[in-house]
Hints:
Layout: H1 2-30, E1 41-45, H2 52-59, H3 72-80, E2 85-93, E3 97-104, E4 107-112, E5 118-122, E6 126-129, E7 140-142, H4 158-169, E8 177-184, E9 187-192, E10 197-202, H5 203-206, H6 210-219, E11 225-229, E12 237-240
Parallel strand pairs: 1-3, 7-8, 10-11
Antiparallel strand pairs: 2-3, 4-5, 5-6, 8-9, 9-10, 11-12
Helix pairs in contact: 2-3
Amino acid sequence: MKEGKSRLKTAFWLLGLGGVLITVAIIALYTPWLPIFDLREVAVSGNKETTALDVARAANVRGGVGLLSVSLRTTAKRVSALPWVENVRVRRSFPHGINIEVIERSPVARVMLTGSACALIGEGGVVVAIDCRGRDGAPLLKGVSLSKAEPGGRLAKQGAVDLMDALQRATLPGAVVREVDISKGESAELVTTAETRVRLGALDEAAGKIPYLEALCRAVKAEQYELIDLRFGGEATLVPRVRR
């Protein structure tokens, strides 16, 4: 009998506590002037190319509002619009803050514009900057057009996006790519720092050839060849350098 009363008492206690918590949440949500869970701090992490101030401005959350009234999804969507930002996670940090964690794009290519201007392309084919200084490690991409020549613009051809992302993920011993040329009839060709030319064939299929190139570079010394031709299925044609 006592055990039953004890369980009933515990149930009423939990029910009461739940009611209190719900009441506090409602008060904090609908009375932002009450500084119980008001927003006072925005913490930014994971950013290198984008300043914390730019992230906070993009988040567009107003100090003093109820923390529970801040839409995490909307805030993440706003921050995701920044050119460098590939992924973002937003969470509340009680009692007075939100944390914004960003993952930035890696540079995958450079595209020369008119004059000496240069567009830096990040993963996903997004223009992250109109400044390529210090980015010589990113391959020069030829024969492409941009939706707009400013941060936030994109590579117009999806095949080029897929190819550059595949190259970014690949490990190619002895075949560091310095140039990617797709200006010859929608056919992609790579040029390495050792001046080895790699023909991949149709642009729409070029990204799918990168795993074959990766396996080939592990099996042979790519720098010893003048030409590697991967246009025909999984078969590779290798042309050795002429020794003089």
